# Entry
Amino acid sequence: MQESAESPIIVALLFAVRCIVPLLLMLGVSYLLRRLGLIAEPPPPPPDQNNGNNGNHKPGGGIAHGKA
Amino acid sequence: MNAVSRSTTAPASRGVQTIRFFARFTRGQRWEHGLLILSFIVLFLTGIVQKYRNEQWSQDILSTPDRLLLVQTIHHIAALVLTLEVLYHLIRAIVLLARRKMSPALFPTLKDVRDAGQMLKYLLFLSNQKPRFGKYNFEQKVTYWFLFFGIGIMVVTGFILWFPVQVTSVVSGGIVPAAKLAHSTEAIVAGIFVLIWHFYHVHLERLNLSIFTGRLNEDDMRQYHSAEFERLTGEPARPETRDQGGQS
# Structure
């Protein structure tokens, strides 16, 4: 294939644009999906936050413990 | 699914020590990543030989028509594996969206933009505080969405190059050279991106094998995903600052 003789600066800028454009697009898509209620928000933190019980409790938000 | 699991060890001198692990990837996600690694490597190696056909090393490998046919066949088989994996990934995502069960963790938000700015400040010594990340940080979201679009481009253009006669019976013939340029250039970009960006974040910055084990230990959760740790446990993560020696 015939390689184009572009300057490295242009190539670097194109690479940066290639990285940023999908993210900007997904920011918009993400906003729309949240507005439409299609993606679920994470559950809020459990109410016993910062009570210093050394983790010997069952965390809230539907989380369970299990033996590894 | 259990988000937190415990592993208990009992060293003779120090009593019982409990290590908590946090579920991060399902078995299906780990299989998908494995298939992606395998197909990506095969496609890259068999594709780069065809892209640089004017080079001596490429001509040595593709020295006979049989060898060229073999390389192309391997490329096409790996492409089919990747296409099936992409279809599974997309269909699963659509089903989860339709059922309102899609997790928002991978979708970028304005917080990710602020996190990137805060991380830049931290790296330039303008701030002592690292940003606090949820389940996926902005670097991981960049990785996912970069490759999501990159693989999409390569799958579409790859099929145009594979079936040019059928495609040009529907659309203009100019699409074939355009697809060839996009396919091979995007492959190089994706290869560089994985080698530099992805390998740095999962091997050099820290050895993160959670995509293979499916879980992350408590120390890593506290340090690299402090907001998610606090959301899951309700305990403070004690976020790291530069003053505490926190250069990861």
